[in-house]
């Protein structure tokens, strides 16, 4: 029989994977992995923000990351620097400032490693309820904007002509991405959450023939990676977050081989 903390960890990880699959598919299609990395690296500043305002860490990080995501969108539109340069500066600068600020908060002790690489085994019943609530909101929101977001991803100019509110849809998608990154910090840590978004989606792309197939397959592979990493961490005494990401990379290698074999036979 599974211990309660293992069951909570598995449920939290599967919940994140189910939402990360479809959301990560759009990250892959829109080539937003670097944007996601920049958001993830702001999570430590979000921890400071939550602590100062006496908020739950997940809520504080989600709010702070969402605000910074909006700021990044604004800076991207102004185009005063190449986007990759801007995102790289922002990502590493935010991480450095977050570490510096946390180092000066002597009265409050933080386990920085748990923020960087996750601590899913420490998920409490309260954390699980909050994670479930946030994931439900993100999942419902993504389902509602799926078609317009897909249209805006495939051909934004044509989508705008057809009446799709491209900028609003992109704004909502960015907020959902920020929210999932905040939740994922608990599961695999801020340094690895983008991998859990991108790797299963990239693996699914090798086999899927439609966007919906890719989203569903990415969610499935993400769940397998979570469960495989959790099992490996328990059996081999490995850090859970990195084990989950490593499992996802192995699945990517397997699907790449399968996809190549299928292509050669086709």
UniProtKB/TrEMBL annotation:
Chief location bin: membrane
Alphabetic keyword roster: Cell membrane, Ion transport, Membrane, Transmembrane, Transmembrane helix, Transport, Zinc, Zinc transport
Pfam families per the UniProt record, alphabetical: ABC-3 (PF00950)
Stored SUPFAM superfamilies: ABC transporter involved in vitamin B12 uptake, BtuC
Segments crossing the lipid bilayer: 6-29, 41-74, 86-105, 126-146, 171-202, 214-234, 240-259
Assigned protein family: Belongs to the ABC-3 integral membrane protein family.
The name this protein goes by in its record: High-affinity zinc uptake system membrane protein ZnuB
Source organism (scientific name): Benzoatithermus flavus
């Amino acid at each position: 029989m599974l211990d309660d903390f293992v069951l909570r960890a598995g449920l939290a990880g599967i919940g994140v994977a189910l939402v990360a699959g479809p959301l990560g598919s759009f990250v892959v299609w829109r080539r937003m992995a670097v944007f996601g990395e920049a958001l993830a690296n702001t999570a430590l500043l979000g921890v400071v923000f939550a602590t100062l305002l006496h908020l739950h860490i997940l809520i504080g990080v989600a709010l702070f990351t969402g605000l910074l995501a909006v700021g990044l969108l604004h800076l991207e539109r102004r185009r005063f620097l190449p986007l990759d340069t801007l995102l790289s500066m922002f990502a590493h600068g935010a991480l450095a400032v977050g570490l510096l600020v946390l180092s000066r908060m002597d009265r409050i002790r933080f386990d920085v490693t748990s923020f960087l690489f996750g601590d899913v085994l420490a998920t409490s019943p309260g954390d699980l309820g909050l994670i479930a609530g946030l994931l439900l909101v993100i999942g419902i929101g993504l389902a509602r904007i799926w078609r317009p977001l897909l249209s805006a991803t495939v051909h934004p100019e044509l989508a705008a002509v057809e009446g799709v509110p491209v900028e609003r849809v992109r704004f909502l998608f960015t907020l959902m991405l920020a929210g999932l990154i905040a939740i994922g910090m608990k599961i695999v840590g801020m340094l690895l959450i983008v991998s859990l978004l991108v790797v299963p989606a990239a693996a699914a792309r090798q086999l899927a023939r439609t966007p919906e197939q890719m989203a569903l397959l990415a969610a499935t592979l993400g769940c397998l990676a979570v469960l495989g990493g959790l099992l490996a961490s328990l059996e081999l005494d490995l850090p859970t977050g990195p084990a989950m990401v490593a499992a996802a990379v192995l699945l990517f290698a397997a699907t790449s081989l399968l996809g190549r074999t299928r292509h050669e036979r086709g």
